[in-house]
Design a protein that fits this description.
The complex is a heterodimer of chains A (112) and B (114). By secondary structure, chain A is mainly β. Chain A has no helices and twelve strands. In chain A, the strands form three sheets. In chain A, strands 2, 5, 6, 10, 11 and 12 form a six-stranded mixed beta sheet that branches. A four-stranded antiparallel beta sheet of chain A has the order 3-9-8-7, with no helix packed on it. Chain A has a two-stranded antiparallel ribbon with strand order 1-4. In chain A, a hairpin with a 6-residue loop joins strand 5 and strand 6. The mean pLDDT of chain A is 95. Chain B is globular, with a radius of gyration of 13 Å. Chain B has a single domain, classed as Immunoglobulins (Immunoglobulin-like, Sandwich). Chain B is mostly beta strands. Chain B is 0% helix and 50% strand. In chain B, strand 4 and strand 5 form a beta hairpin. Classes of the chains: A mainly beta (112), B mainly beta (114). Chains A and B meet through strand 5 and strand 6 of A and strand 5 and strand 10 of B.
Chain lengths: 112, 114
């Protein structure tokens, strides 16, 4: 079945440094959508960005991700981390199975 | 903006007791979902629903029941709560089962089973 892997449980970095959160996935369906959801403390998880187009960069709120079907990856990046980016980030996959599969999440901790 | 609310926001229950978690959405979405969030496991799907009167098992349904009495409301029921069900529970709604659809989450219910 479908699966999503986020290898890093915690990423800690200093404000101003670039962010990269890794996401790889497995699915047999070619029309799958990949999502990044962000969960700030004391708020509801919400969509950050999504894509189904191979090799196309998707951007939102300073973050970007490019779906690479050849490597089954959808890494989340930002050029310069801010303290306010500290949150839990989920990579997720939706395919013809009619269910969204979430990764285990990566907690991003940005330090001053 | 999508609006999903959950009650209670915090709950302490005793082992063997019955717990009902409620979710309400005002988006007129057909689909609703219940997830639990645990460190190291992420968000895992417990039950979901296509519309009023329907419930479907998700990936971890054991020990849980669901009820969808109306378009707006979706409940998660723990008939005999156990300490392993201590977790944070999120309800979500979505327009339809299309692969590109976004899910809209509620604020979560923190459940502690003693």
């Amino acid at each position: 079945g479908d699966s999503v892997t986020q290898k890093e449980g915690l990423v800690t970095l200093t404000e101003g440094l670039p962010v990269m959160l890794n996401c790889t996935y497995q699915t047999i369906y070619s029309n799958a959508f990949l999502f990044w959801y962000v969960h700030y403390l004391n708020e509801s998880p919400r969509l950050l960005l999504k894509s189904s187009t191979d090799n196309k960069r998707t951007e939102h709120q300073g973050f970007h991700a490019t779906l690479h079907k050849s490597s089954s990856s959808f890494h989340l990046q930002k050029s310069s981390a801010q303290l306010s980016d500290s949150a839990l980030y989920y990579c997720a996959l939706s395919s013809n199975t009619n269910k969204v599969v979430f990764g285990t999440g990566t907690r991003l901790q940005v330090l001053p | 903006e999508a609006a999903v609310t959950q009650s209670p926001r915090n709950k302490v229950a005793v082992t063997g007791g019955k717990v009902t978690l409620s979710c309400n959405q005002t988006n007129n979405h057909n689909n609703m979902y219940w997830y639990r969030q645990d460190t190291g496991h992420g968000l895992r799907l417990i039950h979901y629903s296509y519309g009023a009167g329907s419930t479907e098992k998700g990936d971890i349904p054991d020990g849980y029941k669901a009820s969808r009495p109306s378009q707006e409301n979706f409940s998660l029921i723990l008939e005999l709560a156990t300490p392993s069900q201590t977790s944070v529970y999120f309800c979500a709604s979505g327009d339809a089962f299309r692969v590109q659809d976004t899910q809209y989450f509620g604020p979560g219910t923190r459940l502690l089973v003693l």
